[in-house]
Automatic annotation (TrEMBL):
Protein known as: PEP-CTERM sorting domain-containing protein
Signal sequence residues: 1-23
Keyword hit for Protein transport: no
InterPro entries: Ice-binding_C
A Pfam family per the record: PEP-CTERM
Length: 262
C-alpha cells in the first residue's frame, strides 16, 4: 500500500489546475428548513439556483450532526478572527482563481460525528466546490475521487478564517485493487484552524464522503459552477454523472482495511 502526502501551496495549485477549471461565479446552496429526517440521523434540504435551473440538494447523515444553520446566525464565512474582517472576496479563504465569490449568506451544516454522509442533487451538476470551516480535529475521505485544493485561509494572500488559520494536506492512499482514497486533513502548519475550498471536476449527481472523527465542530456548504448541461456544451461529450462512492464497496470498510494494513 502506498500513501502520498501532498502539501498545499496555493499559488502552485492554482497554476497547475488553471487549465482545468477557469474562474467563475459559484452558485451556492441555500439551505432551508430544519431536520426533515423521518427516522434517526439528520436530513437537510436546500436549493441551488443557477442561470437556467433550480436544483434541489439533499444532505443525509445517519449519525446526526452538530447543528444546522439555514437562516441567520453567525457569519462563519467572514474573514478574520470571529469575522472581524467582514466579507472581502478579494482575500477571502473561500475565493481563488477558480472561485469568484464566497458562500452566499450564513448557511452552514456543522458536523460532529464520524461516519458516512451524502449529498444528492436533483439533476447532474458541474465542477462542485466544497467550502470547509474549522477543519482541525476532523478529516474528510473520498473514495476513488480526486479533488483540487483551491484556497486556504492564511495562504497565498488569503485572510484567515473565522476561527483562525491553518494549512491542509491531501493524502492519497493506494488501497490496492484499483481503489484509491483521497483524504483532506489539517496539516497543523501555520495554525490549527483550516478554512478553505476544494473542488471536484466533472459532472456529479451524488457526493459521498467519510468524516474521520467526532470533533465538535467543523462545517461545510457546497456550490456549483452550474448544471452539467449548462457547463458542458451539448456539442461535446457530457461526462456521465459520477458518485464519490464505489457501488457495492463501502467507504468505511475500505478505510478499515487501510487501518488494518497500517
Amino acid at each position: 500500500m502506498t500513501t502520498l502526502h501532498v502539501k498545499f501551496f496555493a499559488g502552485t495549485t492554482a497554476l497547475l489546475f488553471s487549465g482545468l477549471v477557469t474562474a467563475a461565479p459559484i452558485f451556492w446552496t441555500d439551505w432551508t428548513g430544519g431536520n426533515v429526517a423521518t427516522g434517526a440521523g439528520f436530513q437537510g434540504v436546500g436549493t441551488i439556483t443557477t442561470t437556467t435551473a433550480t436544483v434541489t440538494v439533499n444532505y443525509t447523515n445517519a449519525n446526526g450532526i452538530g447543528f444546522y444553520q439555514a437562516s441567520g446566525g453567525n457569519d462563519y464565512y467572514a474573514n478574520g478572527s470571529f469575522g472581524s474582517g467582514g466579507r472581502n472576496d478579494s482575500i477571502s479563504p473561500y475565493t481563488s482563481s477558480a472561485v469568484d465569490n464566497s458562500p452566499t449568506g450564513t448557511d452552514i451544516v456543522a458536523l460532529s460525528r464520524a461516519g458516512s454522509q451524502t449529498l444528492s442533487f436533483s439533476e447532474s451538476i458541474a465542477n462542485p466546490v466544497f467550502a470547509f470551516v474549522s477543519l482541525n480535529g476532523n478529516g474528510y475521505a473520498f473514495l476513488n475521487q480526486d479533488f483540487n485544493i483551491l484556497s486556504v485561509g492564511g495562504e497565498d494572500g488569503n485572510a484567515c478564517g473565522y476561527w483562525g488559520c491553518g494549512g491542509v494536506t491531501k493524502v492519497v492512499t493506494d488501497l490496492g485493487g484499483g481503489d484509491f482514497l483521497y483524504e483532506l486533513n489539517s496539516s497543523n502548519i501555520g495554525g490549527s484552524e483550516p478554512h478553505g475550498v476544494i473542488q471536484f471536476t466533472g459532472a456529479f449527481s451524488t457526493l459521498v464522503w467519510e468524516s474521520a472523527s467526532n470533533e465538535y465542530w467543523n462545517g461545510f456548504t457546497v456550490g456549483v459552477q452550474g448544471t452539467a448541461v449548462e457547463v458542458f456544451p451539448p456539442s461535446n461529450s457530457v461526462p456521465e454523472p459520477g458518485t464519490l462512492a464505489l457501488a457495492g464497496l463501502g467507504l468505511a470498510s475500505l478505510i478499515g482495511r487501510r487501518q488494518r494494513k497500517i
